[in-house]
Structures are given as C-alpha cells and as structure tokens.
Design a protein that fits this description.
- With 327 residues, the protein is an alpha+beta fold.
- The strands form four sheets. Strands 3-4-8-9-12-15-16-17 form an eight-stranded antiparallel sheet.
- Helix 6 crosses helix 7.
- The structure holds adenosine monophosphate and magnesium ion.
- Adenosine monophosphate (AMP) binds next to helix 7.
Length: 327
C-alpha cells in the first residue's frame, strides 16, 4: 500500500473499486453504453492506443445494443422483427441467445423480453410514471422470452408479437466488460480495472503487486459512497443491482428500475441490493438482476445451476448482510 497517494472511489453506483493512484497507470473515462465507463491499465508505450481501441469498441457495441436509441440495431429488431425474421450481428445474436438461456436458468426472473414494461414505467426517464393496472396486464403476456425466436443457422431474430420488445439493460454492461477484457488480453494486457457504472471487472492481480484487488459494495441505505462490505478478489467481475440506482417516489413508495416479469411491477421484497461475483461479467450482471427478483431463498435453490465458486452478497433493507457461495 505504500504506493497509494490516496484511496479513490471509482464509481457512485453499486460496486466500487478501491484503488491506489499510481504513476504507472494509464486510464480513460467516457460516457458510453449509457453510463460512465473507466478502464485502467499499466502504462506502456502502447497503452493510450489500447485504451482508445477499448472505447471505440464500446461505441460500436452501443450502436448495436442500446435500447434507448432509435438507430441501434436492437431498435431495428424491436420495430421490424415481428413482420419477418431479421438477420443480426454476431454480437446481438450472441447476447440475445445468452439472455434467453439465463432467463430459463432463472425461471424467468431475468427476462430480455421485458422491454415494453420497462418503457411503460419509464423509470429514470422524463416520462416516468405509475402505469394503469390495465396497461400492465396488457403488456405482461408479451414480456416473456418465448416470444423471441432465434434461428441458430441464419442468426435471425423473430418476435412473435409486435408488442414484444427486447431490453438488454440488465446484461449489456456486463457483456461489454467481457468483450473489453477479451480485447485487453489479445493486446497482451494482463492486469486491468474496468468500471462501467459500478459494474466492476478486475483483470489479474492489483497493478504491480501479487495482491488481490479490494472491491467495495455500496451501502444502499446511504446516498454517498459509504461501503457496506468489501471483497478481496482477482480476475473476476463484481456486479450489483439495487433499489437505489434508478427510482422515483410516489406517496412514500419507492418505484425502482428492477421489475418482476411475473407482476410487471418493481420488485418489492426485503432486499436493498444483490451483488454477484463471478468470472463472466455478463452472467454477474444478469444474475444480480435475477437474484434481486428471486430473493434470498429462491436464489439459494437455483444457485447450483451456475458457475462454481460464484458468490452472491445480499444486503437487506434492514442493513443485514448474507452471503451465498456456490461450492
Ligand atoms: P440492472 O441495473 O442490471 O439490474 O438492470 C436493470 C435494467 O434492466 C432496467 O433498467 C431495465 O432496463 C431492465 N430490467 C428491469 N427488470 C428486468 C428483469 N427482471 N429482467 C431483465 N431486465 C430487466
Ligand atoms: Mg444486471
């Protein structure tokens, strides 16, 4: 720790990386894929170019995966793929296929077909509101991933109804992190920190040491970056879903952005946040959302379906903390 000039908190969202400022580090931060993204790597003569490539790749992924742009490839699928199957990029196909699989593995708690419900609530956007019960009931049957048909040979997506809309907001940041980690490894970078709006990936060991990284989990009860928990990890992703990320209050009730696909309403249980620690950031992202929907007991039941050594940290509304490990 003697190299540390000070501890800096890298993000205001769920998982926080507690890092040391070090002269030998190159870093770049940009607003892309709907959030503030930072990548840090050891300084070398090619580091600046590698970081530039990382952010070009993130810009490219945004033009494919964004649910909030009318011109993304996903938007094209959402507006036209109910008429006839649409051939899509490898990335979009891969991520929709993975999302369908995770939806099955989580008994529908994570569902990429939730797009119309997300738009109905508009949480975090100017038009956020509590929809009429009738609107929610009308949207529910279309928000199931069985309505997304994939042709593995032609890489085409077909939507079985014009009311089914795909939203990858609960997995895309993690998927993007995995892609950037692949790019870094290809460039010979074996130690890096990625923080995509609180979705953290720590590649290898802490810069210039043989030590683990320290990743903090935010205390959901506080507005600031006070930590509830910290983890010593390496070569892994830590992703958190919580009630404090995007929400509005109406009549004293908090309406937040994680929806239960079975009811169409923001999840109301005894949880404040769920963090998932595992090798795949796409999985960590999707499962943080899914386990938040499922709650502690149901997560315990489904956890053996996933990667060995996966860790799940639950922070409850009363401030208590529980951890599950997939042994
Ligand atoms: P996250 O912050 O990763 O939990 O993702 C939340 C975002 O994913 C929301 O803003 C929605 O766009 C979308 N979403 C909300 N609930 C679900 C769900 N149950 N399954 C899949 N996506 C969801
Ligand atoms: Mg997620």
């Amino acid at each position: 720790m003697k190299h540390c000039l000070k501890i800096i908190l890298l993000a205001l969202l769920g998982s926080l990386l507690i890092a040391c400022r070090h002269n030998g580090i190159s870093e770049r931060t940009e607003f892309v894929i709907g959030t503030v993204c930072t990548v840090k790597i050891p300084q070398t003569t090619s580091a600046e170019n590698i970081l530039k490539d990382c952010f070009s790749e993130l810009q490219r992924l945004e033009t494919i995966l964004s649910a909030n742009s009318n011109s993304s490839e996903l938007a094209r699928v959402n507006t036209t793929a109910h008429k006839k199957p649409v051939a899509v990029s490898d990335e979009l196909f891969e991520l929709v296929a993975l999302s369908k699989k995770i939806s099955e593995q989580t008994d529908g708690a994570f569902d990429p077909a939730i797009g119309a419900l997300v738009k109905l609530w508009g949480i975090g956007f100017e038009n956020e509101r509590i929809p009429e019960q009738a609107e929610i009931e009308a949207a529910l049957p279309f928000a199931v991933s069985d309505n997304i048909a994939l042709n593995m040979q032609t890489k085409e997506i077909f939507l079985r109804s014009k009311n089914t809309k795909i939203d990858l907001g609960a997995i895309a940041k993690g998927y993007a992190a995995d892609k950037i980690v692949m790019l870094l490894k290809k460039q010979g970078v074996h130690s890096a920190v990625l923080d995509f709006g609180g979705n953290v990936f720590v590649l290898g060991k802490k810069f210039f040491t043989d030590e683990d990284w320290t990743v903090g989990i935010r205390n959901p009860a506080r507005k600031n970056t006070e930590l509830a928990f910290s983890l010593k990890v390496n070569d892994t992703s830590v992703v958190t879903s919580g009630i404090y990320e995007r929400f509005f209050f109406k009549d004293g009730i908090r309406y937040h952005h994680v929806l239960d696909p079975k009811t169409g309403y923001p999840v109301r249980n005894n949880l404040a946040s769920v963090s998932v620690v595992c090798k795949s950031s796409a999985y960590a992202d999707a499962l943080a959302t899914a386990f938040f929907v499922l709650g502690y007991e149901k997560t315990k039941a489904v956890l053996p379906r996933f990667e060995k050594n996966m860790r799940v940290i639950f922070i409850f509304a009363d401030g208590s903390i529980e951890e599950l490990r997939n042994m």
